[in-house]
Write a sequence for this structure.
């Protein structure tokens, strides 16, 4: 079958055809030399995080489970949405190396990219201090992976996504306003907004895009006078080349809207915002549309390494050999990494209760964990975000 787009199909990924060549060569060598059935344990972990990051959000576990399902492996993993730190194993796979080694590139890729997007979304949501954050980033990605991005951004904390296909797969309604193209086609902001109001269902909030031709404050007031009480909000998507002091622009727009009796109109800001910009404007902006900074988030550099071979703890230098467990305090969220045969009964920081984070995901090739729905995972992430700090002292 000829593919229209340069992407791999499910079966090819499951068969290990989407891999680095050295894993294929390794598979051939161990098979030839009788090592394919040699049992190993491999851990997925990170030894570094992006600049100014102190934690990350785990995503991609459901897809990883589907990838490893049916193989002769036992898998333990942190629940999807768990906030983790450097050195901690987020996934541990035990089985004959020849059974799953060829899938290393795919496993790492699934967890790295999804976790990067979810983590950036969580940072933006934390920085927003309760304000709405919407993911607008699918245009920054190949269309075949946009559903993954929408899901990862949503479970990371975004309140909604704009992608229609991704929203459908996670059981949410897509959220968005109007593009500049609509205004340009009509040649008039007011006429375009009236048409939007006439055609689009009433349950869609009326949010006007206000930066096409004139000053943001002028277009915001024009939108408010055009739709009156129907207008939910105004969105500023001003490009960086024309932006100036964004805070001052927002404050001026708020002043003018209030002065003319439009206190109910919300202000939405998009165009190039990230967690640093959000933190500086969360007190004056009601909602943020975040695109590229989440879609193209800095990589969470997870690695997949053998930490046990034939029952003996072993690892390449710089790695921690042997099976491990991660305990988390249910009170202060402190994490403790220990050998698997050790036990932590109380938190060493506050003496609170602790819980083990690595839980059975697959036994004998069968998925045994209950895979949570996206909204459940998002709630789990938000609960944890209340217990961690986000330090944004120095903008990168």
């Amino acid at each position: 079958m000829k593919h229209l787009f340069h992407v791999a199909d499910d079966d090819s990924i499951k068969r290990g055809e989407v891999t680095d060549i050295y894993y294929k060569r390794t598979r051939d060598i161990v098979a030839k030399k009788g090592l394919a059935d040699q049992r190993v344990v491999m851990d997925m972990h990170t030894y570094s995080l992006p600049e100014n990051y102190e934690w990350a959000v785990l995503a991609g576990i459901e897809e990883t489970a589907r990838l490893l399902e049916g193989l002769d492996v036992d898998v333990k993993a942190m629940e999807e949405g768990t906030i983790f730190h450097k050195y901690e194993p987020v996934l541990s796979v035990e089985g004959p190396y020849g059974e799953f080694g060829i899938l290393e590139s795919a496993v790492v890729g699934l967890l790295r990219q999804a976790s990067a997007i979810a983590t950036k979304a969580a940072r933006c949501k934390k920085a927003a201090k309760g304000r709405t954050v919407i993911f607008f980033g699918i245009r920054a990605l190949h269309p075949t992976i946009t559903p993954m991005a929408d899901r990862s951004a949503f479970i990371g904390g975004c309140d909604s996504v704009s992608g229609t296909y991704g929203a459908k797969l996670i059981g949410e309604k897509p959220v968005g306003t109007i593009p500049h193209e609509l205004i340009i086609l009509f040649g008039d902001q007011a006429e375009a907004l009236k048409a939007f109001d006439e055609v689009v269902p009433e349950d869609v909030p009326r949010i006007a895009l206000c930066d096409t031709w004139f000053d943001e404050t002028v277009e915001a007031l024009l939108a408010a006078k055009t739709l009156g009480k129907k207008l939910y909000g105004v969105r500023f998507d001003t490009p960086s080349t024309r932006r100036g002091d964004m805070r001052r622009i927002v404050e001026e727009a708020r002043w003018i809207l209030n002065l003319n009796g439009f206190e109910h109109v919300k202000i939405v800001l998009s165009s190039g915002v990230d967690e640093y910009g959000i933190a500086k404007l969360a007190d004056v902006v009601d909602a943020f549309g975040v695109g590229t900074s989440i879609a193209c988030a800095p990589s969470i550099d997870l690695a997949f390494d053998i930490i046990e071979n034939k029952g003996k703890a072993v690892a390449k230098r710089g790695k921690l050999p042997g099976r491990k467990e991660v305990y988390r305090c249910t009170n202060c969220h402190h994490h403790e990494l220990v050998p698997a045969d050790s036990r932590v009964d109380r938190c060493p920081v506050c003496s609170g209760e602790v819980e083990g984070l690595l839980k059975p995901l697959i036994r004998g090739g069968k998925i045994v964990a209950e895979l949570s729905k996206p909204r459940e995972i998002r709630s789990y992430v938000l609960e944890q975000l209340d217990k961690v700090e986000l330090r944004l002292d120095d903008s990168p």
